[in-house]
Amino acid sequence: MVRQVRESFAVVEPHAEKVAQFFYGMLFTIAPTAREMFPANMQVQRSRLLRALVHVVQMVDRPDDLVPFLQQLGRDHRKFGVISSHYEAVGMALIAAVKKYAGEAWNDDIERSWAEAYTIMARSMLDAAAADEGPAWWPAEVVDHERIGWDLAVVRVRSDYPVPYLPGQYVSVEVPQRPRLWRYLTPAIAPRADNLIEFHIRGVEGGWVSRSIVAHAKVGDVWRLGPPMGRIGVDRDAGRDVLMVAGGTGLAPMRAIIEDLAQWGENPHVHLFVGGRVREDHYDVPHLQNLAASNPWLTVVPVLDSAPDAPGVEHGTLADVVTRYGAWADRDVLVSGSPGMIRSTVSRMLVAGTPLDRITYDPFTLD
Fold first, then answer.
1. Average pLDDT for residues 20-24, to the nearest whole number?
2. Rounded distance between C-alpha atoms, residue 305 and residue 321, angstroms
3. Residue 309 CB neighbours (<10 A)
């Protein structure tokens, strides 16, 4: 099953945009009410589907990683009002789309493999959704909007009830400026008793949601926050030191973890590399360096891939600088940033000798 799913997906992947268009057209034909769950503009949604499919296909023979991911997706999809009949329609549309663009590479055995794989995926998601007794989403009011630069803002929201995220996890967010366009954002602080959550948001090119938040979010807006997701975190009892590699606002999960660790007297040693293009991208480095000054287990290394004359920083890409220090084979490695940054950094670390099973990153990093 694994081999057939992967090989047939490799055939259709070059036609990804057409596959996604056909999938959604088929889905809305089979289940017209599903259209109400999606935004009017489907362009970004189609690319999100492909990223999710690629991630699942890559993990299909790693159930220990795949099942928790699917369970998180199942809980997260409760916010859309998804029911079992929607899962059936999605399965039919997905197999029809792959079949159409697989052409001669498709046969009855491959169709059975896709049906089996999708049944396993859907069952994991449905079971997790049914078992979740928490709310499908939490309302949270914007209490502060701080513009750091033309494309960067720090937004603080306060939820009516505690959002049960762990430091390093991300949540899906819907803002009033872009209804039904849910996006994943990562809290940049550990959970607090006053239910305050801080997000660091950069307006990415073509980012409908991120740019609207940076430019137009205002105090008093009410956001909706979906269930927490993600695998990035630190196990204080594992007995291993930690390497953190953060690019841009990918610093948020690392910052939340570090703030959480700072409440303990003893911790594994944490070596944090913070990447950026120019000095302004290191807007939060002084805060982290202050934490390091009072927490000897923390080392902060700023990295710039431009501004070669800037003092007090390492120069080069994060992939260059991190591997220049060695293979980090004895560390648990956490990586967060843009998809390109994650790909290049992880690839270089693997070549340098970092074990794959020590590297953790989350797949949803785009707007």
1. 89
2. 10
3. 5
Q: Radius of gyration over alpha carbons of the chain, in Å?
A: 21
Q: Are 122 and 87 in contact (CB under 8 A)?
A: yes
- Which pLDDT tens digit goes with each residue over 135-169? 989 999 999 999 988 889 999 999 999 999 999 99
Q: Which CATH number fits domain 242-360: 3.40.50.80, 3.30.70.360, 3.30.420.40, 3.30.470.30?
A: 3.40.50.80
Structure tokens given for 145? 């909007």
Angle between helices 43-59 and 63-76 (to 10 degrees): 150
pLDDT above 90 coverage of the chain, percent: 57
Q: Mention every residue, 6+ apart, whose C-beta is less than 8 A from residue 83.
A: none
Please state, rounded to an integer, the average pLDDT across all residues of the chain. 90
**What is the per-residue pLDDT for 365?**
45
Residues of the chain with CATH 3.40.50.80: 242-360
> In sequence order, which residues have a C-beta less than 8 Å from that of residue 150 and are 6 or more positions away?
none
Q: Which CATH class is domain 138-225?
A: mainly beta
Measured in whole angstroms, how far is the alpha carbon of residue 354 from the centre of its chain?
22
